[in-house]
Design brief:
Length: 280
Amino acid sequence: MVVLWVLVLLMALATEFAFSMKGEVNTTRNFKEDVETYHLAKAGIHLAMAEILSPSSFHASHPDFGLIAGVPLPPTDSKKETPESGESAYQSPMRQDIPFGRGTITYELEDENSRIPINTITRNILVKVLTTAGVEIGEKRDIIADSILDWIDANKNHRLNGAENDFYQNLIPPYFAKNAPIENLDELLKVRGIDEKILYGTDQLLGLNQFFTVYNAKMINPNTASPEVLSVIFSKSQAKMIMKAREEKGFYDNTTSDYFRIRSTGRIEGSPTNHTINTV
């Protein structure tokens, strides 16, 4: 009986030891693969940077490839005639499942110049954005517009329909108005009158996050801006002309962008582990 009990105890200890070792092996493998996929994702960031830094005549949106960079066409004959005005080509970039070592890299490029810089916005444009987004005309729209401008400006004087410390200090929990540029669009949730539906959108509302960027881009790129952003910045006829040109030749003019959002993911073949890096 003693021998049998000793055998049972040894079997239990051996089983526990085997499970413990299996857990340690899985933990070590997961850590190793996470480090590998992180560096694969980082390599994707550098591939995207190399693509951004290459000479380009314009940046535009393509329905299949996403953001594309235009390059001038070479001379068409021995006389080295230059291509017709506005004639350009673009490279179809390879960004999906790029093999590298025993893993793959996938990255995406998004143009921040396709949105309106919120930290330098005027009240007139801000009101147009809110109207286009579907915010009801009247007091609510004016409250949001003035409160955003009060949140950004450096002084503590609120506008007619705005809000400063005297309003935010009466909330639970209380907090102070930032009175400085917005660094992340999620900050707008703290601004008077804005909730998640207005910021992120619903079936009836376009989210403000689809219109704004926190980066002070030199200009809005008409080649990549959405129809809603175009309707805010340009007249109805101009916006229609821009969209028509984009549909016909893929871009409107030779505007290039200077802020880009990169999302890069590294994966290892046969492993569920992946790592994603977002950066601008």
